[in-house]
Every structure is written in structure tokens, then in C-alpha cells.
Design goal:
heterodimer, A: 216 residues, mainly beta, 6-stranded antiparallel beta sheet, 31% strand, B: 193 residues, alpha+beta
Chain lengths: 216, 193
């Protein structure tokens, strides 16, 4: 299984009194997040976390294909569905989304890339929110790099323990491992988009070359 | 019928049956929900491609309580290996119902597409595990799995495609068969040509 579709869903839920957790439970409650706070969804110490920062080994290549989060619709009276923020991708120490003047920004807002898709909101009209943003071209994490997804709370401060203060971030990525990571690097060198179809194409090309065009 | 599109739908026994208890949707038992008589496995002449797994949708805002806070997750297991891992290589609960909802509605639309597909090679045991992490007591969760079963000669071709590094799909299996037929029916080169 050298190419694997992977996901990570972060939410600000943790056991009562604990800021973060490595294991979800039905008794988890929201953790307080002050407006404007930016935190790592993997190791930020809030909600569902992992044991170590995300990184690729020398034989791995990661392609981040989608990022989405709870939106902040700016509604005067926010429902729980619309009190979210924005997500940013960081590779090593470089943040991916920047303002035109190359200053830092919060990233892609949940309004542009909502999670889940279709959730009910009241602003700008009472409707179901769909995505306006596609992460294309995808974001590549090369072998040996550290990557992170940062969430910024843009709506009202989330209150600890209030059941209506849950926010979430969703990340979809493909992990290329072993020979497929080498091929992904080769495609990158050739200027070809790294995706499963192109990795398959490259393998087929190699096989055809070795077999002189024959199939058997 | 050597390539067959197949589905399996699981319904939990009740709203709390899967809460904090990850279990098999095939053999989880009557106290868990719908089940079948034995674990899912492929024979020596079968090849399975899992193309979609979905579960009851929910909204993160109500994960800690509320009518749409089922917070279900679906994991795929091949033999003893779980497919979806966290970035620290520890298995996670799997695909959230919020990302891959079943059924799809205007309010619950997919963010996730299982691509590349998951292959179950001949002789492997596979399973789909489901758990809910929400305290919701009202919605009885469902899980939906769509897979294609390749049997007999088509399973051999699926294995061949896998060796060649080509995605196993009905279209590619057909392409391989067409290529074989074309190669066999091509006129033999004349002597001295």
C-alpha cells in the first residue's frame, strides 16, 4: 500500500479539565479558545492531538489535497455552526497562504472551505454552506520536511465545556511511501503534478520501456 | 459475472450501540447492529476493491451534544492492519461521517473521496470498523460500504494490473482484456518481413 488516502479531523474537544487528548470519547467537552488564537491541530495542546509533529521520513512524500474548517459567517447572533475560523498550512517554518504584500494571514477561511460541507448557516442567508475554494494545485510536503496545519479562531471566543462551542478542522492528504515516494519526487522534477494517476502513469511508462512496448 | 459492484449497509441496534466501542460492521454481533455470518474475506480467486465508506453525517458544532452530534468514524482494516493513521502513525478512528456522510443530503455533503481505493488481495481478511464519539441519543447510525468484487479470471487480471502499477478498476480490467485480445488476433508477421 504505497499510496494511501489519509484524513485527519481535529476538534476542540477533550475530557473535562484536560486541554488536549489523544483519544476521542463521547464525554469530551469543548476546550476554551480565545478569538484570534492560532494553534496547531496536531500538537497545539488543544482538543484532539497527536503524539508528535507531522513530518515525512526520507522515503515519504505527502500531498495535502483539502483543508476545511468550521466557518465564521460573521453573523451578529452566531449559531454554533458559524463560529469558526480559518486554516493555514505550514511547511517547516513557512506559511503557505500569504497576503499580496507577503505578510502573514490566517489562511483559508471556513467560509470558503467549510467543514462539513452543506452545514446550515444563517448568514448571509439562511442556507446550506458550500465550498468556494479548492486546494489546487495541491501542497507538497517533500521527504524530510515538517508540516503543520494551523487553525485560527476568528469568531467569538469558544467557551470551555459549553456543548455548543465545538469547532473542527478537516485535512485530506495522500501519503506516498517507498518506491511511490521516489516516483513522486521524479514527477516533481519533471514538473508533473503528483497524484495517484500520474504515479501510475509513470510506472506504466517504466514497464513499457523495459518490455519494449510489449505487455505480457 | 466476474466483476460485480457490491454494497453493504450497516444499521446500529440503537443510538448508543456504537458509542466509544469500535466494532466490526460485519461481525459486531446482534448487540451492535446488523451483522453477517462470518468475517469478510477473499478467496484465492477473488480480489476486492473498496471504493467508498460512509456513515451517518454529523455537525462538529454539536459533537459534544445535540441532534446531529452522532460523530461517527469508519475505519478499514486489512488482516490486522488499520488503513487510516494519524500523522504519528497511530491508527485513528477513521473517516468522519461529517466528511463522508451517508445518506448524502443538502446538509451533509462529502468532503472526502476514497481515492486511491483500498485493495483486498486474494486470501486476505478485511473489515470495516465503526465507532461513534458523540453523546447523541436520538439518531441510529448507519454505515455504507461500496466495493467491487473481481472473481475468477478478472481477479487474475486485477493482480496483473496491481503488479504493473495500474489502478484496478473495471475500465482498466476491460482495457487489459482488450489488449490481450488485440495481441492474439493481430496477424502474424510474414516470413522474411
Amino acid at each position: 500500500m504505497a499510496m494511501r488516502s489519509q484524513i485527519y479531523e481535529w476538534s476542540n474537544l477533550a475530557p473535562l479539565g484536560a486541554g488536549a487528548t489523544l483519544q476521542r470519547r463521547s464525554t469530551d467537552l469543548p476546550v476554551n479558545i480565545v478569538t484570534g488564537t492560532q494553534l496547531s491541530i496536531f500538537t497545539g495542546g488543544v482538543g484532539y492531538n497527536t503524539t508528535k509533529p507531522s513530518e515525512t521520513t526520507a522515503t515519504q512524500f505527502v500531498v495535502i489535497e483539502d483543508i476545511a474548517c468550521t466557518p465564521d459567517t460573521g453573523a451578529a447572533a452566531k449559531t454554533a455552526n458559524e463560529n469558526g475560523g480559518a486554516v493555514q498550512v505550514r511547511i517547516n517554518t513557512t506559511e503557505y497562504f500569504q497576503n499580496p504584500d507577503v505578510t502573514a494571514m490566517a489562511g483559508v477561511t471556513g467560509l470558503a472551505s467549510p467543514y462539513p460541507r452543506g452545514l446550515a448557516v444563517t448568514t448571509p442567508v439562511a442556507s446550506n454552506l458550500l465550498k468556494s475554494f479548492d486546494l489546487y494545485p495541491d501542497v507538497y510536503v517533500l521527504p524530510g520536511q515538517v508540516w503543520d496545519i494551523l487553525y485560527t479562531q476568528q469568531g467569538a471566543t469558544l467557551s470551555a465545556s459549553s456543548t455548543a462551542c465545538g469547532v473542527a478542522v478537516f485535512v485530506k492528504y495522500t501519503l506516498y511511501d517507498g518506491p511511490d515516494a521516489l516516483i513522486a519526487n521524479k514527477l516533481l522534477e519533471l514538473g508533473i503534478t503528483v497524484n495517484p494517476a500520474n504515479v501510475d502513469w509513470y510506472k506504466r511508462t517504466l514497464i513499457e520501456q523495459q518490455m519494449g512496448g510489449g505487455m505480457a | 459475472m466476474a466483476m460485480r459492484s457490491q454494497v453493504y449497509e450497516f444499521t446500529a441496534l440503537n443510538a448508543g450501540a456504537a458509542r466509544d466501542a469500535q466494532n466490526s460492521i460485519f461481525t459486531g454481533g446482534a448487540a451492535f447492529g446488523t451483522s453477517i455470518t462470518k468475517p469478510a474475506e477473499t478467496t484465492a480467486t477473488q480480489f476486492v476493491v473498496i471504493e467508498q465508506v460512509s456513515s451517518t453525517g454529523s455537525t462538529p458544532a454539536t459533537y459534544a451534544g445535540g441532534a446531529t452530534g452522532v460523530q461517527g468514524y469508519t475505519q478499514v482494516r486489512i488482516n490486522t492492519t488499520e488503513y487510516f493513521l494519524k500523522t504519528d502513525n497511530i491508527p485513528n478512528d477513521g473517516i468522519p461521517g461529517a466528511a463522508s456522510p451517508y445518506p448524502r443530503t443538502v446538509a451533509f455533503q462529502p468532503s472526502f473521496n476514497l481515492y486511491p481505493d483500498v485493495y483486498v488481495l486474494p486470501g486476505q481478511v478485511w473489515d470495516v470498523l465503526y465507532v461513534t464519539r458523540g453523546p447523541d441519543n436520538t439518531v441510529i447510525p448507519d454505515v455504507f460500504v461500496k466495493y467491487t468484487l473481481y472473481d475468477g479470471p478478472d481477479a487474475l487480471i486485477a493482480n496483473k494490473l496491481l503488479e504493473l502499477g495500474i489502478s484496478v478498476s473495471p475500465a482498466n480490467v476491460d482495457w487489459y482484456k482488450r489488449s490481450l485480445i488485440s495481441a492474439q488476433s493481430a496477424p502474424a508477421p510474414a516470413n522474411g518481413a
